[in-house]
Sequence to fold (293 residues):
Amino acid sequence: MLILRWKSHTTRHVQLFSANMGRQLDIHLHTKWGNEMRLQDRVAIVTGSGSGIRKTMVKRFTEEGASVVIADINQEAVDTVVRELKEAGRTALGFKVDVTNRSELKELMKTTASKFGRIDILVNNAGVTRNRPFQTMNGEDWDFVLRVDLKGVFYCVQAVAEYMINQRYGKIVNISSTLGTGTTPGVGSGTYNYAAAKAGVIQLTKTLARELGPHGINVNCVAPGNVGKSTFHSTRTPQEMEKHLALRRSLTVLNRTGTLEEIANAVLFLVSDESSFISGQLLCVDGGRTDRM
Ligand SMILES: NC(=O)c1ccc[n+]([C@@H]2O[C@H](COP(=O)([O-])OP(=O)(O)OC[C@H]3O[C@@H](n4cnc5c(N)ncnc54)[C@H](O)[C@@H]3O)[C@@H](O)[C@H]2O)c1
Fold:
């Protein structure tokens, strides 16, 4: 006779017990049921929008039980993502915001907290590029990218901090880039401003982790490698893009580009309680880039 024992509804741990053989088999199920989703009842703000990484990320968050706030400078993109999520039966709120504008960020946090009662997660994903040949990059190009990609991250964390400190709980993930971790011949040419900003995000993560850790807030950083034909490379012709992707593939130990889901899964881990003892860390999700190893 086989007896099935439910060891725990929260750990998905069941035991099969064979009475006549006196043997027991422990099984950890990889299915979800009941209310054991990884972000159950969490409230997450994700900055940046469009059809890129963020869209996949918020979808994953809502699948795991979170309510999400779509915060982007592009109203149309905000409306589209919120509509899609609501059609799928998820809880989502849209907010048009410029991450470099402190008063708009204050409003974002206030509105989120009054609608949902708390703010558990912030993902600083908004980003811009303005690549230029070395001699022609001017101060405006430099300031534009540094303002959004680096100062914007700091402003967002400053704005959310009081809410997370008050509840003594918070998960912050900043999105950097492998271009902020090293250089490669033929990759990232003209990205002086972007690479500097993304490198800054890594060190900013560490200082913020130190500042906010005593308040129960984890701050980590994800550096995505190349994830295929994103809007980030739209200045290239199709032929240039193919050449570029072939080079990027050859630079990884896994010999391929990544997927948006693979980035989203890494961020999901860092905003869930599975990573509760991790803070101030950089997680490179890049297929093992050989130029960094
Ligand atoms: N796609 C890649 O291959 C890749 C690789 C490494 C790192 N990243 C990083 O991942 C993040 C997302 O990349 P993506 O490919 O999804 O980009 P994306 O262009 O699809 O999305 C970026 C979003 O940021 C928003 N945004 C721009 N300025 C803003 C501002 N001032 N305030 C609020 N929102 C603003 C844009 O409207 C856009 O929706 C970025 O931080 C990027 O640097 C991407």
Q: What stands out?
A: The chain has two domains: 1-36, 37-285. Confidence is low (pLDDT under 50) at residues 6-15, 26-31. The pocket of nicotinamide-adenine-dinucleotide is lined by residues 47-50, 52-54, 72-74, 77, 97-100, 125-128, 148, 152, 175, 177, 224, 226-227, 230-232 (CB under 6 Å). Helices lie at 53-63, 75-87, 102-116, 139-167, 192-212, 238-250, 260-271.
